Sequence to fold (222 residues):
Amino acid sequence: MHFEILVEDQSGKVALDILVPKIVGADHTFIVHSYKGIGRIPSNMRDCKHASKRMLMDNLPKLLKGYGRTQAGRLGFPSLVVLICDLDDNCLRGFRQEFLAILDSCHPKPRARFCLAVEEGEAWFLGDLPAVKRAYPNASDSVLGSYANDSICGTWERLADAICPGGSLALSANGWQAVGAGKSAWSKRIPPHMEIDRNLSPSFCFFRKTLMAEIGIIEETP
Fold:
């Protein structure tokens, strides 16, 4: 099985390049494609006129149409497109319906699954607190212990409060470039210590089960 994985930023790619092999093993292939933000789905499902901006949602109709044509031309080569993005403050059901509407507009339709990180990608790190502590031994136990998995609470800020001197306020005071650098550092340091079977983030577990179902390790996720 081959997986084409679409993520909204470079830090997500860094983390998934480490995590996906832990899930699918060495017998399957994957490519993680990163974009420069989430963007928004174009009106009327039209292709983005500014593809060079590389915003994920802006380019999604065009991308899925292309994957549909590619898959149709390679019937003997099983592949799956997996879209991963942060839920942020969007409605989960409404967000998923938007994705499915794009998929239904493709002819031919690609095989694709949608996985949302609830609330943000850092929720997947916080789903494995032992991994966070191994990567950052001085992380605050009280901050980590107060986190409820996949809660809408300002997830990256909670992780920053646990592991950064001065917490999220000190990090954000230096601007979004510093926040991005912090997220990139977390994506490199925490995933090598993560155990995929102990993660308590429901959205990570859904992503893991999605990939495992495709390679036949578990039954199809409903």
In short: The first strand starts at residue 2 and ends at 7.
